[in-house]
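HUMAN:
Sorry, I am quite new to this. Are you able to go through these amino acid letters and fold codes? The numbers rather puzzle me.
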Amino acid sequence: MLTIIGCGNINRCDDAVGVIVAQKLQQYLAQQPMPHVQIYDCGTAGMEVMFQARGSKKLIIVDACHTGSDIGAIFKIPGKELESLPEASYNLHDFRWDNALAAGRQIFKDEFPQDVTVYLIEGANLDFGWELTPAVGDAADLVVAEITNVIQNNI
């Protein structure tokens, strides 16, 4: 099973890019169903990421980042390099997808995917709004194309 998860806040311009990628991939699968692929829009719910990933062999996460790099830059990173245990907190909003990777591996052990890839797309505008910066939109299309290729080759 291949699981693809888009993360981000749809109401914060470029922060929505992971969700938009997931939506585009869901449209692709609606036209070409593949029972071995599941795609989720997990928004900002890190706990949801952990539970949706359980039982998958391969996991792909897509999210925005803001590192000061060129707008629309795409970073493809092994999930193992990004996972981190959460800080002690009573607020579940503080539990992000990077925490979900570490916690899921500890909680679900062999039921949690070992093959994890994270695509991060450099955003420019993370303020309230619904439009992607053009360079971020172009990067999203490139990531959709690359993940579509992964889906087709993962049959």
Summary: The two ends are 10 Å apart (CA to CA). The mean pLDDT is 90.
